[in-house]
Amino acid sequence: MKIKDIKKILSAKLVIGEEWLEREVHTACGADMMSDVLAFMKDQSVLLTGLCNPQVIRTAEMMDVICIVFVRGKMPDEAMIQMAKEREMALLSTDHRMFSACGRLYEKGLRGGATNR
Amino acid sequence: MNDMIKMQYVVPADDFTRAGEASSSVKRKLKLMGVKPEIVRKVAIAMYEGEINMVIHASGGIIDVTVTPDMIEMVLKDRGPGIADIDQAMRAGFSTAPDNIRALGFGAGMGLPNMRKYADELSIESELGVGTTVKMKVNIV
To answer: CA torsion sign, B119 to A85 to B19 to B8?
Structure first.
């Protein structure tokens, strides 16, 4: 699944990262607690979160996350957008809630990856 | 990469928006040095959890990073309140972080367990009222 597919499936707004829309996403993770995100290493993944602060971008950076989806219509601020730009990440914002957003992506074949590594 | 490379970072107190800058910098530098992505990620996550802890619990501190051809060592030193019971702190889910920190997405009690998970070696020395020193090593080979 590509970032552009996620955008479409979630009727999401692209906040930044037009140039990364063709990038392939292998796995996904949905969490509001950043340490839960950090507990499982994934490759080329997308992070869905209801949290909206600079530490989300940093957590994503440490995990090599390539795309962050903010659920419930949350919008990152300018500072976060700038951070994401420097780190070559795409940011999306969807009005769907966490459960529905994850469900829609799962339904289209995106998976969470190994349970524990 | 024959020589030993040393880096030092000062982690500022109570500035949550900047927490993680040191780990971010180390991650970029290791990448430039050509360290394997999985190793870089292990170092970045372990150090980031430690750095966040320093900001949440200890009013910042100092991180020394040493890179040799065989391993990456991180020493995180703070003059915070110290850890009363290290075994308890190591338990997944145990946290003393206040609600305002939880609202920011941390304080799930996964910091130290994550550090143990990603570091090949972890040691913690702590004295109440004096501070905490966390040493972590990630092997390159």
So the answer is: positive
The answer to pTM > 0.80 is yes
Predicted interface score ipTM higher than 0.90: no
- Angle (CA) B20-B23-B46 rounded to 5° is 100
Has residue A97 got a pLDDT over 50?
Answer: yes
Mean pLDDT, rounded, of chain A: 94
Residues of B in contact with A54 (CB under 8 A): 17
Residues of A in contact with B52 (CB under 8 A): 55
Grouping H, G, I as helix, E, B as strand and the rest as coil, residue B4 is coil
- CATH architecture, range B5-139: 2-Layer Sandwich (3.30)
Q: Where are the alpha helices (DSSP H) in chain A?
A: 3-9, 34-38, 54-62, 78-86, 98-107
d(CA B13, CA B91): 26
| A17 falls within a domain | yes
Q: Which domain holds residue A97?
A: 3-107
**Closest Cα partner for B59 from B131, B137, B117?**
B131
Q: How far is B23 from chain A (nearest CA, A)?
A: 8
* CATH at residue A54: 3.40.1390.20
Answer whether A63 sits within 8 Å of B19, measured CB to CB: no
* Confidence (pLDDT) at A116: 47
Interchain pair B41, A51: CB under 8 A:
no
Judge whether residue B26 has pLDDT over 80.
Answer: yes
